[in-house]
Every structure is written in C-alpha cells, then in structure tokens.
Amino acid sequence: MPEVIRAKEMGFCFGVKGAVELAEELAETRRDKKIYMLGMLVHNEHVIDKLKGKGVEILEEADLLEGRDNLKEGDIVVVRAHGTIKPVYDKLLEKKAEIHDAACIFVTTIRKTLQEKEKEGYEILFLGDINHPEVRGIISFGKTVRVIEGIEELKATKIEAEKKYALLTQTTLNKNKFLEVKKYIESNYHNIDIFDKICGATYVRQKAVEELAKEVDLVLVVGGKKSSNTKKLYEISKRINLNTYLVQDENSLDRSWFEKVKRVGITAGASTPEEVIVKIENIIRGTI
Ligand code: F3S
C-alpha cells in the first residue's frame, strides 16, 4: 500500500468553516423558519447536499433579481463566504429577509479598501477572475473597476501617467501570478499602488502543495468542480509533479493510479470537508 502524506495545510479555511457552521446552526435552531443559502454556500457539492438534507434550500441570485423566487418577509438567507453582488444585498433588504451574512472578513476588507481608494480618487484595477462570484461581488461595490487576469491584460490596459491607480487582488489568486504582475508593475509604472489581498489561508495551502508535490510520486487534489482555489492548487502541483489528479471525491478515483507509486500526497481546497478526504485516504491505504 502506498504511504499517504497530507499537505501541511489543507481543507476547510476559517471563512468556509464559519459559513457552514452558521447555516448548520440556523438549520438546527430556527426550524420554524424557511432557510435559504444564497447560491452554493461553498463550492463543494458534498457540503451543499448535506445542508439540503437539513432543510436549507438554495435561493438562486438570478431568480431573486428577476422576481422568480418564493422568498417571503422574515425568511432567513445565509450569504456565502465569498459574499455577493450589491444588487442582491439590496433586493434582500427590500424583501425584508433576515440576512445572515457569512462573507469572510478577507472579502469584506477588500470591498472596504476598494471603496476607500475610490473615494481618495484612485482608479481601481482588480487582478482576478471576472467570472468568480467573489470578484463579481466585490467589484459591484465599486464604480468603474477594471478586472485584469494577468500581465497581458495589464499591458493592454491604458494607464494614464497623471492618474493614480490601486491594484487589488482576488483572495484566492495564485501567489506566483501575483508576484509576476507585481514585478512588472514595479519596473514599468510609478503610479500603481499594489494591495496584496490574497488571503493567508490560500497562500499557505499553495505553499504547502508546492512542497508536497516535490516529495511524492503522485498528488491528489480534492475539491469541488467549481472551486477556484482547488483549481489553483491543482495547477501549482501539476507544474511540479505531472502525476497530479484533481478529484471531487472517492468516486473519481482510479485505483490503477496507485499501483506503482510509493508515496501519495494529498491536498484539498478550502471548501472540501474532512470526511471526503478521510474516505479517499482510506481507499488508498486499502482499508475500505
Ligand atoms: Fe476567506 Fe480565504 Fe477562505 S478569503 S473564505 S479564508 S479562502
């Protein structure tokens, strides 16, 4: 049986943990109320299914905005760790829902910085993935935020010498990508202030998988299909160790992967529950 080695940091981050615990507690203590989670509370299908089993329903943002929802006054709505867009918060207030905002402190801090810098007259550049809910949520609190994905887009962006710019980052950005952009900015511009907002939980998980990938014969990255930080862990590991696989749960394992390997490394995205990781470890060790 191969030896299984865990990354030094992996799995649930405190923002996700807080959001899931909040929803579970509400499901337990407020049974008299209808409880919704706004979209996928966290990007992990297992966590979502478990919450659904406890009676927490999904309220889709688009349905809410377009009037296709059944939300009633006083219904409970839990906002996910990555927050949501301002029009959704406004709609929830308008419909007098009982809002429980589980938006992580790192996300709300970026929102605050963005608004402060705009007030101070900065133009905002946002380094991240425009399709990620966190990014869409944060930038909806600003006026004219330009989202860039990397150096190439930055090069294509008109930077005016007489203006001042603030560059903010998505919490789950790949640190190496950020450092590349930072280096480019520092050697080409004097009027872009950089605010590194990659959250500690993301960074330590990325560092840990970097170390792990060098030490083992094969790396398993466990996480949801829609989880951005899981995908980044996969990319980092794959660059170092070609034998890297992204799996959602034990059902996506191919047992032949482990036939000739001695050391299997395992890491997991910030929204992957411990029970999924343990199941996978037990399969590799041949205990189930
Ligand atoms: Fe918060 Fe970082 Fe997790 S931003 S939700 S602690 S990945």
Describe the 3D structure.
The chain is α/β, with parallel strands linked by helices. The protein folds into three domains: 3-12 and 201-285, Cobalt-precorrin-4 Transmethylase, domain 1; 14-103, 3-Layer(aba) Sandwich (Rossmann fold); 106-194, 4-hydroxy-3-methylbut-2-enyl diphosphate reductase, catalytic domain (Cobalt-precorrin-4 Transmethylase, domain 1). It has eleven helices and twelve strands. Strand 2, helix 2 and strand 3 (57-59) form a beta-alpha-beta unit. It is flat. It starts with a strand and ends with a helix. The mean pLDDT is 95. It binds FE3-S4 cluster (F3S). The active site is at 134 (proton donor). It is an enzyme of class 1 (oxidoreductase). Its EC number is 1.17.7.4.
Short key terms for the protein model shown above:
four-stranded parallel sheet; 4 iron, 4 sulfur cluster binding; single chain; 3 domains; flat; alpha/beta; binds FE3-S4 cluster; Cobalt-precorrin-4 Transmethylase, domain 1; 11 helices; Rossmann fold; metal ion binding; iron-sulfur; 288 residues
Biggest beta sheet summary: 4 strands, parallel
Poorly predicted runs of 5 or more residues: none
Envelope shape? flat
Record the strand order, biggest sheet. Answer: 1-12-10-11
Bound molecules: FE3-S4 cluster
Rg computed from alpha carbons, rounded to a whole number of angstroms:
21 Å
- What is the CATH class of the largest domain? Alpha Beta
- The average pLDDT value, as a whole number, equals 95
Number of helices: 11
**Number of domains as seen in the coordinates:** 3
Helix content: 40-55%
CATH fold descriptor of the largest domain: Cobalt-precorrin-4 Transmethylase, domain 1
The H-and-E topology, N to C, reads as EHEHEHEHEHEHEHEHEHEHEEH
Number of beta strands: 12
| First and last CA, distance | 12 Å
